[in-house]
Specification:
The chain is α/β, with parallel strands linked by helices and about 475 residues long. It is built from 15 helices and 25 strands.
Length: about 475
């Protein structure tokens, strides 16, 4: 099988020199994509600019119908799209299906939000100078949107950007991850081939820094929406100029297991939060702070839960965890484990690497100075840290340059209320893992975890402008 992601500029698809995508598990090339240049990026921006003259004047009912139509088409092809995800990035097929289902829900949420792109009347007669005026504001499309997406959710994170952009009346240039471009291409085609599509509204180019830099630096886009690493996010901020920039830059998710918590629940959920998608999730659970009174008991329970997880072929239905995206990522994670062990950490589960696959790894006796808890790991590694109560846990959790999502396991209402206020993060979860996210919610972080929020309602706000009207 060979599936080719073509570049899409304006109304046309183009072929060219191909680059293979190697499946991280099989080491076979199931998909390929057409390599692009900075010139391709410039042409895509020109096409989007031309299309914007039509998209900004299109009727909202047409744009709502577009998103609804794509949701219906994806529903009919959900097994096929799940296979695309597994073929490209080796996400276990059961989890790939979950991603497709979430994407369908996400599209439906976005379509519904189209009915709530509202303005507001302004009581100018509240002032003497405005007594003879009528004023209101409306939301209008921001312009051309550049969407840059990562590999870990190659379908749903694309939906989080392009569906709100299009329903708001913008045109888009999408640059999907080089690790999983065909999934994004096939998804983009659902929009482009819809009877409700506007020619040129969605353009797709591929590439790394040279293509991305061209898109970001250009004066044509009004909005840059990026999900990825902090270093790249900083470069985008430095190069974007006067644009609206939304950044989702990952995190170092943590939880506190307090001594009144249901330890069986906490252990089972923490195993999922730490090892789902091989830890390649921005809100993957990386740090677990455990009250000293229950530390040993919880550590044993977590080890048992980790041992239940099947690791191996992503094409098998009962596989929970497959490989990392490439061997470099696996080697990097292995080196971090070895570094922590040399500094005094103790492996209580996993720690072994076989090619791209790193066994679900639990480290105990981890201290604050170790790199393994200070920086984002993006691998199936979780660290246990012993603390003496809530105050110490709070200090350690917040002592991070990141602030995406944190959680607490407790049956004490007073600590629940405190954690909601005290945790310095964009999201706080009670009695579940910080890896929990619903696509309808506002999602984003504080500090180095980014700027702006995802979730259809909130992205539409980011991708529209307020236009004020005064009638005198």
């Amino acid at each position: 099988m060979s599936l080719i992601a073509k570049k899409i500029i304006g109304e046309k698809e183009f072929e060219g020199e191909l680059k293979e995508i190697i499946n991280p598990y099989t080491k076979e090339a199931f998909t390929k994509y057409v390599t692009c240049t900075p010139e391709d990026a410039k042409e895509a921006l020109k096409a989007a600019k031309k299309a914007f003259e039509k998209t900004k004047k299109s009727h909202l009912y047409q744009r709502i119908s577009l998103i609804e139509d794509v949701a219906k088409k994806l529903e009919k092809r959900k097994d096929e799209f799940a296979e695309f995800i597994t073929l490209e990035m080796a996400k276990p097929i059961s989890q790939a299906r979950i991603e497709v289902t979430r994407c369908i829900e996400n599209l439906k949420i976005c379509a519904a939000e189209g009915y709530h792109i509202l303005g507001e009347t302004i009581p100018t007669d509240a002032t003497k100078s405005g007594a003879k005026s009528v004023s209101f504001y409306k939301r209008v499309p921001a312009g051309i949107v550049v969407a840059i997406t990562p590999f870990n959710f190659p379908l749903n994170l694309v939906a989080h950007k392009i569906a709100p952009a299009l329903i708001a009346g913008n045109s888009v240039v999408l640059k999907p991850t080089p690790e999983a471009p065909y999934t994004a291409y096939a998804f983009a085609k659902l929009f482009i081939d819809s009877e409700y599509a506007i020619p040129g509204m969605l353009n797709v180019v591929y590439g790394d820094a040279d293509v991305g830099s061209t898109l970001v630096k250009s004066p044509i886009p009004r909005v840059i929406s990026f999900t990825g690493s902090v270093p790249v996010g900083k470069i985008i901020i430095q190069n974007a100029g006067i644009k609206k920039v939304t950044l989702e830059l990952g995190g170092n998710a943590a939880t506190f297991v307090e001594n009144s918590a249901d330890l069986d629940l906490a252990a089972a959920r923490c195993a999922v939060g730490a090892f789902a998608n091989s830890g390649q999730v921005c809100i993957s659970l990386q740090r677990i702070y455990v009250d000293s009174k229950i530390y040993d008991e919880f550590a044993k329970k977590l080890g048992v839960e980790a041992s239940k997880l099947k690791v191996g072929s992503p094409f098998e239905e009962d596989t929970f965890m497959g490989p990392l995206i490439n061997e470099d990522a696996a080697i990097r994670a292995e080196n971090w484990i070895n570094s922590a062990v040399s500094e005094g950490a103790r492996i209580i589960a996993g720690g072994k690497r076989n090619g791209n696959i790193l066994a679900p790894t639990i480290l105990a006796d981890v201290t604050d100075e170790m790199k393994i808890v200070c920086e984002e790991v993006f691998a199936p590694i979780v660290s246990l840290v012993k603390v003496n109560g809530y105050e110490e846990a709070l200090e350690k959790i917040n002592n991070s340059p990141y602030g995406l999502q944190y959680s607490i396991f407790t049956n004490r209402i007073d600590l629940t209320k405190r954690a909601i206020d005290d945790f310095e993060a964009g999201g706080v979860i009670v009695n579940d893992i910080p890896t929990l996210r619903f696509d309808i919610q506002p999602y984003g972080g504080m500090k180095l975890s980014g700027l702006g929020r995802e979730g259809a309602k909130y992205v539409i706000e980011e991708m529209t402008e307020i236009k004020t009207i005064i009638i005198k």
